[in-house]
Amino acid sequence: MPFVLQLPQALKRAGWKVKIHDSERLEPPHITIYCKMRKWRLSLRDGRFLDNGDDWSQINDDVRAAIEENWQVLIGEWDEIHPDNPVSGEDDE
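The chain above was modelled as a monomer; its predicted structure follows.
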């Protein structure tokens, strides 16, 4: 079952969501950040964006703060959903 980070209501109304999908077990551990139809994938191993051109300047500051405050929770949720591909596992590169 996917995990959705709880964000303040104002951010949800603005279209922001932070999610760990349960169908991405073969990909590098990451969260997906959404704003309406736009998405960014952020590595849980090194905190870098997985897709070229994506940058923190494109993410709402309050969303970034929520991610940073819940970093260990996000890692724990990824590891629980994908025990065969934990964050502390081998680097995928």
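The chain has a mean pLDDT of 94.
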